[in-house]
Amino acid sequence: QAKARGRNGFSFYAPSMTGEGVERLRLETFLRRSIEKEEIFLNYQPQVEIDTGRLIGVEALVRWNHPELGLIPPIRFIPLAEDTGFINQLGKWVLHEACRQMVRWQEAGLHVPKIAVNLSAKQFERGSIVNMVADILRDTGLEPQRLQLEVTESVIMNTGDAMVFINDLHSIGVALAIDDFGTGYSSLAYLKQLPVETLKIDRSFIKDISTDANDEAIAIAIIQLGKSMNLSVIAEGVETEEQAAFLLRHGCNLAQGYFYSRPLAADDMLTRWQK
Ligand code: C2E
Ligand code: MG
Ligand code: MG
Ligand code: MG
Question: pTM surpassing 0.90?
Answer without folding.
Answer: yes
